[in-house]
Amino acid sequence: MTHNYLGLDAGGTSTRAVVVSSDGRCTGVGKAGSGNPTSAGVDAATTAIRSAVTQALKTAEIDRVSGAALAVAGTGNPDYRAAIVSAISDLVEDEPVFEFDVLAAYFSGTAAPDGYVLLSGTGAAAVRVEDGRLAAISDGLGWLLGDVGSGFWLGREVVRAGLAPLDGRGAETSLTGLVLDRLGTPHDAGLQGGRTNTLVAATGALYAMPPLRLADFAALVFTAAEAGDEVAAGILDRAAAGLAETLAAVRTPEVDGPLVAAGSVLARQPGFAARVAPGAVIATDGLAGAAVLTLRHAGVPVDDAVYHRITSSLAQLTRV
């Protein structure tokens, strides 16, 4: 008998759900906003997860699934886990299993049970996977304490470097104009309390944003670096060194499996990914890994044939 299962990949940017049958065919997908309680708040994140799951079941034309694996960032709080379980209890027969979001990223690039993943999206981390389980992790400490080389880290460095020349603390850089354009802040040399109106307006706009929104500025560093900006190139040098250090921290001679590069920064910047993770498989869709995880927890062996069915059927669904 064929059963249906649910895989969920919820992060700081979006929440995505997939219905996958026990033979590896994806039949429904759903998408909603941030499912990370740290960045979105518990109520909004729980609502997003419920919405994504409901959409996926509707697309698959079913009312319930047998089980679910939820790869959700920020679920260390048991109250939040309980809220998620409650929110989808009528849609999942067995109690959902919570998994690490970095494992979903890993299995989005390979079905191999042993290997590594280097992740750089809104956050950044490196993980060693052994027998399909998280065996070691480096960084992933969040925007305040770590995530070196992440989208947030890059965006913060872009904004710092872009604003520094406005009060005489940094080298001239094209990042200044790019940041001001992104903010919609006009150049105004008038003064307020010794600062230019431009700097006052820019800092006011930035502090009005949730901190994680600084990740929105990350792409500017690649634009500037490609145009020959030395300040931007220096930021990328530091990011590459930080990510390499993070990856080296989990490497071990005993595990010689594949390396997966994942997350929005690495997926959208293949040249940068090749620099920090040479030879890596670039995973562009964490939803495939969520499908793998839910089948593994259901006791379904995910060999190359099943993995191919997952990725190919999911690609057809997401192209629609």
From TrEMBL:
Keywords: Kinase, Transferase
Keyword Kinase in record: yes
Residue ranges constituting the ATPase BadF/BadG/BcrA/BcrD type domain according to the UniProt record: 6-269
Gene Ontology terms for molecular function: kinase activity
One Pfam match: BcrAD_BadFG
Claim: Nucleotidyltransferase is one of the keywords in the record: no
Top-level taxon of the source organism: Bacteria
Protein name, UniProt field: N-acetylglucosamine kinase
Species of origin: Nocardioides luteus
